[in-house]
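Project standup — Tuesday

K.O.: blocked on the structure for the chain from last sprint. Re-posting the sequence here as requested.
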Amino acid sequence: MPAEGRFTVRPLPLHRRTRGRRAAAGLGLALSVALAACGSTEGAAPDSVVLVTHDSFALSDALVADFERATGLTLKIVTGGDAGEVVNKAVLAAGKPEGDVLFGVDNTLLTRALDAELFVPAEADLSALRTELTEGLDPEAGAVPVDDGDVCVNLDDAWLAARGVPAPVRLDDLADPRYRDLLVVQNPATSSPGLAFLMATVAEYGAEGWPGYWQRLKDNGVAVVSGWTEAYTGEFTAGGQGGTRPLVVSYSSSPPAELVYAADPKPARPGTSALLDGCFRQVEYAGVLRGAANPEGGQRLLEWLLSEEVQADVPLSMFVFPARAGAALPAVFNQWAPRPSAPLTVPPAEIAANREDWVREWTDLVLR
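H.V.: unblocked you, prediction finished:
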């Protein structure tokens, strides 16, 4: 995790659903940019375009090479931790951004980005995107949907079965004593999946009832870490680093990664699954940053993120669902990445009005 208050530039990292399972990290791009932490894009080359994003961004090498050949632009990637951290830093640097395009703002944080006027109007054609993602969206606000997914609790099925612990089937089950000290979640103040899970509990238990649920989770030994990587790869028993908690907040589309990155001979099914009750539908957006050094290149990059080629690459590069209507999904997704039939949501206006108060109340309740 980068030091607080700094962006780091490095080869593109593994996605939050797969980091720690590939032999080679990231896209393998040779990124040699050094950008200042607080400030400006002075000195940015006119033949480059800079994408500011979270640690989980990943696309295929060949696609990046195609973009660079087609545009004559060098794509440079600036990562800054979890999406929540990236948005916080972008808001602080509004008007003097670290790059040209920001990717990874989700629907729990979108109003904060829009209120800070982070983006310029989008020129990308949104007509090919799924209508449920673009309905009511104002292109003048600048944020366009790139992908979506469902934040759900993931289960290490083999761990539970080996110990005779039945799998939870409802969100409420997580507070049952049989799951004491088994769940790890992310801090909603620093993590977008963590914030999405908090919103799931608000949607499930109501504005008055969610604190009581979290008190029960706290009493039941829930662990809290700063971001997805620490939770999944560090604390989760199926994360590969000796974790001790078989329940973790992740995504319904995480289990396919267990097969995609498994060594041969691959198992017939993933060793993990998603608890489909209590999932929160998360949409990720991108936009051209106000004050960008290369706004024209930024608009081309934004259009590219919505292209058929990139959208087809999204499932197995970032283990989320493409925003483009009719985009084909790989077989492993169709079989092992079920979408909840009734995902939880909170209206954007309600999130905007209450997000900071809810996070503050959660912090006082759970961490103090």
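K.O.: great, moving the ticket to review. Residues 26 and 60 are 9 Å apart (CA to CA). The longest helix spans residues 192-219.
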